[in-house]
Design brief:
Helix content is 41%, strand content 16%. The protein has helices spanning 13-22, 45-58, 78-97, 115-132, 156-165, 178-184, 191-204, 238-246, 267-279, and strands at 3-6, 27-30, 61-66, 102-105, 108-109, 139-143, 151-152, 172-177, 210-215, 217-218, 229-230, 256-258. It is globular and about 50 Å long. The strands form 3 sheets. An 8-stranded parallel beta barrel has the order 1-2-3-4-6-8-9-12, surrounded by 4 helices. A two-stranded antiparallel ribbon has the order 5-7. A two-stranded antiparallel ribbon has the order 10-11. The chain is built from 9 helices and 12 strands. By secondary structure, the protein is of the alpha/beta class. The chain has a single domain (3-279), classed as Divalent-metal-dependent TIM barrel enzymes (TIM Barrel).
């Protein structure tokens, strides 16, 4: 299994790779720009060189980048929608420069316009994105959500609907977040529940589209529609739920990324990864 965590790019994107090595990661996820600003500072040539050098030196692979939380390509507000689209396009271009294969994004929030309208807006913007960047090969990974507020993507059918409306299906993938699907109402803890949930995912979306898995326990109860991450085994999913994921042979080549709380010394990442590895049956 390929285990890792989201690591900070503070001080330069190359530092995320070194943090990944310190945290015992096989793979990492990063933001490729500040996640709370619209525009990005252009990469300096030496920063990119140091980034690729760090990957070669450590063997830590950058499996995916996560988009800014400001982006909402489902927004009914024309200005915000356009701002979001331009920011998404810029992040996709930056992934291409960094040779990051996957860009994970929350589908968006309809903000009262209605779910069907929001899903149509997302698909329309993705079609426009691929038309604008015909030579870009980065895969857009729609992330499953908990369904807070008017957030879309809390049902597998919603993600399938977006993918079905996008012309360029080759560059459409999914990121499954364990905390999000659990609190959205997909059970994971019991073996029969895990099998049923994964069968539903396969029947609705297809396991071939699963590119990234976020391994997060849940601070909130099952079907609560609340997005609060907890350390592995310390939340309502529990160790048994994660045992299913890390021993599912179908998921062997899919990067499994932690997004759990941590301090600057990354001790929590190290401990969570140690726990996940201990669950793998020899």
């Amino acid at each position: 299994m390929l285990f890792g965590a989201h690591e900070s790019i503070a001080g330069g994107i190359f530092n995320a790779v070194y943090r990944g090595r310190w945290a015992t990661c096989d793979v990492i996820q990063i933001f490729n720009k500040s996640n709370n600003q619209w525009r990005a500072k252009k990469f300096a040539v030496d920063e990119i060189e140091k980034y690729f050098q760090a990957i070669e030196e450590t063997g830590v692979r950058v499996a995916c980048s996560h988009t800014s939380y400001l982006i909402n390509i489902a927004s009914p507000d024309k200005n915000l929608n356009e701002k979001s689209f331009k920011s998404l396009r810029e992040e996709m271009e930056r992934c291409d420069v960094l040779k990051i294969p996957n860009l994970v994004m929350h589908p968006g929030s309809h903000v009262g316009a209605g779910e069907d309208v929001g899903l149509d807006r997302i698909a329309g913007n993705l079609n426009r994105l691929f038309d604008d960047l015909p030579d870009n090969r980065v895969v857009i990974c729609l992330e499953t959500t908990a369904g807070q507020g008017s957030n879309l993507g809390y049902r597998f059918e919603q993600l399938a609907s977006i993918i079905n409306k996008v012309d360029n299906k080759k560059q459409m993938g999914v990121c499954l977040d364990t905390c999000h699907i659990f609190t959205a109402g997909y059970p994971l803890t019991e073996p029969k529940d895990y099998k049923k949930t994964m069968k539903t995912f396969d029947d609705t979306i297809g396991l071939k589209r699963l590119k990234i898995i976020h391994l997060n326990d849940s601070l909130k109860e099952f079907a609560s529609r609340r997005d609060r991450h907890e350390h592995i085994g310390q939340g309502f999913i529990g160790l048994e739920g994660f045992c299913h994921f890390v021993n599912d042979r179908r998921l062997k080549k899919i990067p499994m990324i932690l997004e759990t709380p941590k301090g600057e010394d990354l001790i929590e990442d190290i401990e969570n990864l140690k726990i996940l590895r201990s669950l793998v049956k020899k």
